[in-house]
Amino acid sequence: MRPVDLLDLIYIEEDSSNEDCPSIKQLPTSTRDELNVIAQWLDNNLRREYVQIYGDERSEVIMRSLQNLKDHQKSGSWGNEPLKSARYYGRASDAGVKKSTSARLQQIFERKANKMFMKASQTLGQSAGLAMRKNSSFGDILAAEEYGSDNDQELEKYLVLLLGLQKLLVWERQLLNDIIPSTRHNEVFSRLSQASIEMVVKDAEAITGRVLRSISRKEWSAALGIFSALKHVQILQPDIDKICDSAQRQQLSGVLSKLQQTGSKALEQFIDGVKNDAGGGGMVSMSSSTISYGGGSNVPKDATVYELTSNTIWFLEQLQEHCDTIGSILQLEQTYTNDLDRIASHKTVSVEQKNKALLGIYVRKVLGELNYTIATKSEQYNDVATKQLFKLNNTHYILKSLQRSNQIDIVALTEHDCEKRYQRMIQDLKKAYLSSWSKLLANIGPLEDLPRPVSGRVKDKERAIIKERFSSFNKELDEVVRTQRAVSVPDVLLREGIKRDNTEHIVPQYNAFFEIYSEVQFSKNPEKYVKYRPTDVTAMLNSFFDDTI
């Protein structure tokens, strides 16, 4: 079969399992009847070598058709072929219209998923809970706008190859039913399908091998592609099961197995990547189109959100699109099923929630490693305040991201107080940050420990104390302002909240000190020591986190 004919067969509107396919009709009924008579005669007369001949000939036809499709995929025209015939769609306006391969595949798998959803709904009913949920967001690796990486294109081509194999096997099964005696069906179908099934299994092994090499280089978009491919192969599996016997189904299960193993390895290595960054191993540089982990494990100079944090959260958010697929991977891991059993012993986890809970367990593990890495990385800063601001920036970013993406609800299935725990962490970090002012505030208090002026005067030996207190406060404040102007707090509400807390914490204490000692005659040059009024200190505190001032 020519590639364009096979692609037309793949992209027709009808259900892929429909036996009334246009290509099947290419062999007239009279011809099939005659071949059936011949086959019956051969079988009855013990000339059963025809079974081997027929199986080998048809096997070669399938292999040539698939190889031609693979060669066509390597050509420059791949991905933008116009549909050849309007009769496949029943509307002349649809003929010859160019549509990207990604968009066509997206439509195919949406229809298959919707049919599976409808069938499951009718069988199980809404009350039982459904593992397969209707999902119209099939724009993952098949979204034409975001498509681009070599691994993703390779996976897309492989999905088309699987669809092509499924169509060809439907065709061959129909021919077999019409031509070969029923007692020989399984034997012949096994012979004619074996080579092509072995080819797609071998191709899956080659593709997953390349993906694993990409993952070893910390290119995590390849992992997302695997999850998407696995989801679509799972959707396609029922159609293949209809036409294959147990032997072929067992062979083809190798495709699912390789994809699942690769997905599991990707999830495991991602956790290791977050963990290893704490030791300086370097994590990742991501974007929506490509994800590439680089070396640089140094923290940002301005203590803003660490690249590891934003990239990890980005990756976790992408996993939500593959919740059921990842659930099917994690349920094969003993540690995850043990965690799920412990959760189920304390609360009811429905069938529909099972995959979400498994993903929640995984996300919780990643966040645990991320929190540890952030704490470890904060030690690279020299001053306490910047350490706390770095941790505060990152912890706040994690919580807000989890809330924005609704991922907090997934984690809550496994840790009900996750949100409150992060809120407590943020409050504790704010307190730890405010405590960093203790050195500065020690210069202006406690007031009861300082000399008490009488009629605006202090004793001669006490003047030096007042001079030293003002001088040390000014020096410390100048240093803190210089340091914290260079710090970045990206979130507006967090930034303004910290400034407000600083003002409320420091200005009243300085104001009390200032009112008592600013007019005391403790120096011939008081302006040298009384440099800042309380309003000046307020303005300086409000200049924090802005190095343009």
Automatic annotation (TrEMBL):
It holds the Pfam family Exo70_C. The keyword Amino-acid biosynthesis does not apply. Residues 163-543 form the Exocyst complex subunit Exo70 C-terminal domain. InterPro entries: Cullin_repeat-like_dom_sf (IPR016159), Exo70 (IPR004140), Exo70_C (IPR046364). Keywords: Exocytosis, Protein transport, Transport. GO terms for biological process: exocytosis; protein transport. Transmembrane segments: none annotated. Belongs to the EXO70 family. Component of the exocyst complex involved in the docking of exocytic vesicles with fusion sites on the plasma membrane. This is Exocyst complex component 7.
